[in-house]
Each structure stands twice: as structure tokens, then as C-alpha cells.
Amino acid sequence: MLGPLRAWRDGRELPTGPAQQRAVLASLALRRGRVVPVPDLLEDIWGWDPPASAAVALRNHVFRLRAALEPDPRTPAVLVSESGGYALRLDGAALDASVCERLKAEAERARDAGEHEQAVRLLKEALALWEGTALTGVPGNFAERQRQRLTETKLALHESQLGLELRLGRHAEAMAELSSLADEYPMREGLRALHMLALYRCGRQGDALAAYGATRRFLSEEIGVEPGPDLAALHQRILRSDPGLDLSSPVTVPDDDHGGAPGRIRPAQLPPVAPDFTGRTQEAERVGRALAGAAEQTGHAATVCVVHGMGGVGKTTLAVHAGHAVRERFPDGQLYADLRGASRTPLEPEAVQRSFLIALGVSPQSIPTDAAERTALYRSQLDGRRLLLLLDNAVGAEQVQPLLPATPRCATLVTSRTPLMGLPVTSRTALEPFSEAEALALLERIAGPERLPKEPEAARGLVRACGFLPLAVRIAASRLAARPRWSISALAARLADSARRLDELQAGGLAVEAAFELGYASLNGPAARAFRLLAVPETVDLTLGPAAALLDTTQDRAEEVMEELADAGVLESFEPGHYRYHDLLKLFARHRSLKADAAHERQDALNRLASLHLRAVSRALRTVSPDSRLTKAVDPRLAVGPRFADHDAAQSWMIKEIDNVLCVAAQIADDADGPVRAADARVVGRTLVLLTYVSDHDVPWGSFTSLGHMLLDEAEMGDDLPGVVNACAILALAHAAAGRYGQARDCARRGYETAASQEPDIRHHLAHIQGVVIAADTTSAEDQAAYFAHAAELSRAAGDPCFEAQCLLGLITTHLARRQPAQAVPHCHQMLALGRTTGSAFGSALAHRHLGQALHDLGRPGEAVEQYTRALVLCDAHYMPVQRARSLLGLARAEHDDGRLAEARSHAVEALPLLAGADQRAAAQLIRSITEAEAGT
Length: 937
Prior knowledge:
The chain has 937 residues and is α/β, with parallel strands linked by helices. Among the domains are: 1-168, Orthogonal Bundle (Arc Repressor Mutant, subunit A); 281-430, P-loop containing nucleotide triphosphate hydrolases (Rossmann fold); 436-514, no CATH class; 832-936, Tetratricopeptide repeat domain (Serine Threonine Protein Phosphatase 5, Tetratricopeptide repeat, Alpha Horseshoe). Helix content is 61%, strand content 6%. Helix 6 packs antiparallel against helix 7 (171-184), helix 7 (171-184) packs antiparallel against helix 8 (189-201) and helix 26 (599-624) runs antiparallel to helix 28 (647-669). Residues 248-263 have low confidence and may be disordered.
């Protein structure tokens, strides 16, 4: 590792492959046998945002490395897979960096024992391992950090060795190397101090003073600082020819001791650790490993660990816990500052520098007012110390950067609501809300172990109401602890009311709303408005289209705003283009909207979203049934809308989004801000009418019933006859699905009669609904076939072949239900002809399936098998899971009656888990019949 990356086995050099493959090898080797999780490896090689192909590339690199490194790649023993990552199992002598560290440690022990000759020999042996710059040619952020760390190690070895050489009186021998190193690394004042001392002892006092002058000029011109106090003191001693600088009293120069420097102030500013710290096992171990690694590895460059997440998620609690766990590894102390990043007035880094300098023993009068000079003094004071810095609640990278030590002996742990992506970090940990188990464990620790076993369901409901947010759970648990006679269910019931939940989640100085207010207050005006309006709909997830509608902007601008909110820690982005609020943050945002936004602004936002749904449903149905006139009849302006690539994409969208569409529709119809506006009600009604024709998907008719009644009331109050037609169509189908046939017939009749005068373009739709309603009532003696035939005639006259096929389907199912298969056959052929005309794969699949049933009922199972097979081909090609299952069952029945028992069994078994209710029972009975028939044979 200490030069170009190379590997050998039995004296033979092994191929380490291209640059990225060498980076994988370096990352594993320098973890010294520890398992490196795959995400960490991806970040090591490709940075925090690896390409989509990175995981595959990593596996390929590991495969090729095994081929090179393993004696037998079939049974890996060197490069092993374990616990979701990889590890390189090498003994201590197999890695030159490990050998170097061992020799360095032995040299330090020899030096401490006064065995200076032995220490020099060991240090020279360690330096002899180097072949230029460490990890030459290895790419990646991790390799660069390690290269800096190893370079620091090399320089520390040089300083220690040359310092000992001076103690042994070899200043003349060390002169050339000291001069070269001091010139090569002009900011390492320890090397310059040794160089000046060697010059002085060689009788070159003037050259020693000139070397100091050159260093002072370089520091002043390049970075605007003066030499540190140790080098300045040495300069004064050389000026006055201090006798203490002669060989018998060597000068004290910075060395590489691991202990805290004697006489220094040792700050201990970490806040107290939470006694009830719960959960976060993996996160705490990850942060602890990173901090401990910084403390253990001398020369490690710029160790910075970031813990980020939303307000109240427990960042500070975790950071303080991790800091206390490793505090003994930082013997020079711990510094802490609350940077107030979530407030309106974040702390300036200059104020933090001043505070830390005073804590380190610098008098306030000695602290420069100039920013560059103060930063230089700050980093000089940190140099040579082993300090842990905890920078809590940072607002951004610009606030943190001036506070980072330049010394390898220190580690910095930063918490922030944002990921601080502009900051170079060693480890980044994103905190999510608790799991249910973690939340219950914290509740139990604070409220008392005897309470949860008595009310386990209430406890689960309580932590769910808290959104598993650690702060909320802590507050709820504290309230229970303060009121031992309260039941968990009593507090859970209070939290169940979303209107008062945030008010309930406060205790003492803790309040969820106050934590959220800090983040909200940091948003600028447009971002704050977006934060409020995006929370108006009660849907769970937000994608770019709906967000753009809510904000009345373009999708690109909506994404910019949501990314800004995600960076501020008030919105979660779980995949590109998809966003989500935490439940409590959404409540907070909606409360803020009630205070800050006018009622019509919220109504307008919802209406824009509902209009988007209407256009999307219309476009989806146009894609599924290109020749359908229904969408144009419902609203001629619906020609524009989201586009779908094909039938499958449209079908998939409708199945996935129907719950969101209904959620927004219900929110508009039951508006808490006042009466529903007529325009809004009309949009909802038209959307629901179109949704009744969502194909191959079970429509949630219960939701349609309540929405239909609300829309009918609004339409009647506003004398909106087209609205009455829409509401009646929705209610007729919903009542029929629920078995309320009398109400269904009344709504269907009223809708048809109203449509005849008000909505003639959709009268055939209402005629069809009348047939559907009557067909659903198996006790009715009324002739539903007449309604379907009438609807088909109206559809043909309206030039709507898609809906004509729908009406023919009603005729077909009616004849099949009446056991009139011969009358169903010609209608099946008509429907197939229309399917060819319109290109409707769904209609053609239905026609083939029902023709198969008709032919089977006519005693022609062989022909039925052919029709069912054609239906299956269409179902497989166009993703129709429900129709596919029913076609499989019909095919199995026809094959059974045609004597093809093996095929029948295979298809029945395939259909069984895909079916439900009576169809599933029929499939099971068919399988039993086939088994009995085979046994008889």
C-alpha cells in the first residue's frame, strides 16, 4: 500500500487489475479484515451518488480479485462475503501499512524506555517500506483520504526519527534530510523546528534565524498567519543563544505521543448522555467505528462524521451517546457547540472558534479579530492534540468548514437536518424514525416496564400515533411516567384526534411542534408556502405531476422546490421524483396552512390536483379504448392530459392511483372549509364516472357510495343537472354492487331520464347502467337484455364502438346466465369484430372467454378450448390478471370435458391461487373431480 498498489503470493506478483478494481482492493485491505458493507464500498469508489451500474461493477471487481488473490476461488478464504459486505482476511505481516504501524508502535515504546538507538533503527525500518506516495494510481474519495492519512504517517515517522537523531547528537548527519523535508513541507512547523535546531547546533545560528524568517514569510504570504507559539519561542531562544539548546538539553518539539500533553487545559464539554438511550444499534456502531478509527490510526486525515435527519429524530441523542462511548480515545478532551442551524439566527463560525479557543486556554485578549488570523490560531491550537469535536445542529457546510481541524489527531462529529452534501466526510449516517420495536422499547424504559404488558395493543397504537418519532415517543412516555394512574389507552385516544395531536405531544420543555417550528422558520417564503400546500391532500406520497398541480407550476420547478424541502429536512425523498412527509410533519404543515393560507388557496390547490386526476383517468381510458366517446362526452376539454405508452401503462396507472384519486375526491366532497364549489364537484363527478370503467380491477364501491351522495346533494342544491346525471350514474352502480337493487334502479332511471334532455351524448351510458343494475339483481324478472340491446343501438347511433362492445358484453352475460348459449354466440362474434375495429385487447379477451363458455355450454368443449386459449394469449400480452385467472378456469373445465385430464389439472392448479370466492371453490372442486377421474382410470 505504501507506494503503487501491488500484491504478491509466494514471491510472484499478482495482477490487481484496472484502477477501480485496485480501489476495491485498497478499501478492503485498509479495513484490516473488518467487513465493509456494500454501500460503504460503493461510496468509497464512486462517492455519495454512485451510478446505477455501480453494484454490478463492484461484484465484477470482487470476482476478478478473487481469481487473482485466492488459492482456490471456488472456496474463498482471503476475500470473503459476509453480512452484506466483503472482507479481506490477511494476517498482520501481509500488509506493509500494518507492518509500518507495528514498527512505529515498537519505536515509541523503545523511545519511552530511553532506548533511542533501537527506536531510530525501528523508525528507519518503517520508512524503508515506502516506495513513493501511498496508493499511487488508486482512484476514489476513500483512497484520497487514506493517501493523505498515510502521508501524514510518513511525515510523523520522519519527524520522530530525525528528532531522535538530534537527541543522539547526529545533527550534522540529519541536516540534509531535514533541510529537504522542511522545504518540501513548509507548513509543518515541527520539521522546521528540528531543522533550525540542527543548524544552530552545527554553529549556523544565522542560517537558523534565516530559516525561521523564510518560514514566517511563507506563512504570512500564503495563508496570512504567523508561526505558532512553539516555533516562535524556539526563534527567540536561538536569538539569545539559549544554553538550553545545546546537546545536553535538547529542545522540546512536537512529537507523536498518544497521551494528552501535560499542562494543557482538557475541556470536557459533551452534554450528559441520555440514561434511557434505546435502539439505534447499527447507527451507533457505525458512528463509533468511524470515530474510533480516527483515534487509533495516527495520521488519519480530516475525520468528519455526519449524522442527519428530520427534527425530533434523535440526532443529538445518538451523537452524544457515540461521543461518550469513544471519549477515552481522545485524551485531550471534547469540545461541543450547538450551532443553532434550525433557528432564524444560526451561530456564526467565528463565535464558535472564539468559544473553543477560550476553552483551550487562549485568553480572550489574544484572539485575533481578523477571520483568517483567528482560523489559523484555532487550527494551531488544535494541532498536536487528540480532541473530539461535536458540532450539533449545523445549518450547512459553510458553517461547519471553518471549524474543522486540520490535524489528523482530531475527529469531528456533526449533526444536521440536512445531509451537508458539500462537506467532505468520512462517514454519513441518515437517521430514520424508530422501528416499532425500538419505539416500544423507549416507551417501556420511560413509562415503566409494568405498563406495556397490560395494554400491548394500546401501546402499539400510541407509538404509531407518534409516527415512531423518538422525540414524540419520549414526550408521550414522559407524560405517562408523570401520571402513573393514566392508562396507555387513555393517552392513545387523545393522540388519535389529529386536530389536537401536536398539542398533546408536549411535556416540560419538550414539544414536537417546537422542534418542527425551527425547521419551518428557516424556510424562505416560496419554500414555506410549498411546504404548506403540498400537505393539503391527504394522500401519502407526492410525485412530480401532482406536486406541480398543487403548486400551480411546472414539474421541473416543483422538483426544485421539493428538493429544497428535502435538503431542509422537512420532506423525505425515498426515490427520484417521489417524496413523502413524516405523518407528524404533515400534520404540522396542514396546521400552518390553516393559519397562513386562505381557504380558497387550499381549495384551488385541491381542485388543480383533482383536475389532473380527471385528465389522467381520461387519457388512461382513451389509451385502453381509443375509440371511446365517453371521455369526450363527459368533458370535451379532456383531449390533453398525461400520456401513457400503451394499454399496460394506462392500466397500471389506474390500478396504482385509484386510491389517491378517491382520497382527493373525498376530501373535496367533504370540505371542512365550507360548501363544495360547483366546479370542484363537477370535476370529481366526471372523474368518478370515468373510473367506473376501470377495466380488470375491483372498484371500491363503498367509497363511490358516500361520494355519490355528497355529489348528488351538491348538484341538487346548485340545480346542476349534468352533475345530477354523473351522481346518479355513480350511485346506481355503487348501490347495485352493495345489493341495494331498488335504490340502484331508481338512480339508474333518474340518471337516464335526466341525460335524455341534459346529456344526450352519454344517454347510451345510462341505458347500459340500467341493464347492469337489473342484471345484478338475480331476483328481478325484468328483462335486462332489452336495456343492453337498447344501449347497444344508442351506442351505434352515437358512433361509439367501444361502448357498443360494452353493451354487447351485457347481452352476452345475460344470455349465458339464462342458459341461452346459442343466443350469446352471435353477440360474441359481433364483439370480436368490434374489438378488431377498435383495437381493444381487453374487449377481445372478454369476447373470446365468453365465446369459449358459450361453446362449452353447447357441448363443444374442443372449440371452447381454442377460444379460451386465445383469451389467455391476450391476457398474457396485456396484463389482465383477473381475466387470465377466469380464462384458466374456463379452459380447465373445457379440457376436463374434452378428456384432456392432465392439461385440465395443470391449468386448474395454476388458476387456484389467482381466484377468490366461488371461482376458487369451483377450481378446487374441479381438481378433486380430475383426481377422482384419474384414479378411476
